[in-house]
Amino acid sequence: MVKYFSPSLLDGSVTTAKLADDAVTTPKLLDLAVVRNKIATNAIDNPRIIAGTLKQSKLNTTEVSTAGSVPGTARLSITMVAYCFWPMIHVENSTDVRLAGHDVDAPGADNPRFALVNSNAASRTYDIDYRYIVV
């Protein structure tokens, strides 16, 4: 027996509705899955994406590169773009410069940050490259 709460659609809001062949292999909606035109929390049990059903299978990413120098016996804060991957960090003399957590708490996860700390009196150059997901 199929249970549903007949969500209404506006006239003309759906012109063509079609599922690709084998797009859904074992469909199952739990009781109260659709309430007032919204899919309820935990409405879909064991979802999966069938191979070949996605039109674009790659993440849209771009690269960021930044370079500069860490002054002698100083700490330099680095802020990256949201949704980024772990960076490649190259430092002129890696025995003098270490990674550290950022010393000021960010307002949220959209401000990934870390610091480069130089223990030497001389400044050290750095180069940082990373990718992030374009949204």
Give a written overview of the molecule:
- The chain has strands at 34-35, 38-39, 61-70, 75-79, 88-91, 97-100, 113-118, 124-133.
- The protein is mostly beta strands and 135 residues long.
- It folds into two domains: 1-53, no CATH class; 61-133.
- It starts with 33 loop residues before the first strand and ends with a strand.
The arrangement of helices and strands along the chain is: EEEEEEEE
What's the count of strands?
8
Number of helices: 0
- Report the biggest beta sheet as strand number plus sense, adding barrel if it closes: 3 strands, antiparallel
**Terminal Cα separation, in Å?**
41 Å
| Main sheet: strand order | 3-8-5
Low-confidence stretches: none
| Count of the separate structural domains | 2
Radius of gyration: 25 Å
Strand content: 25-35%
Q: Estimate the helix proportion, in percent.
A: under 10%
Overall SS class: mainly beta
Q: What is the residue-averaged pLDDT?
A: 78
**Overall morphology:** elongated
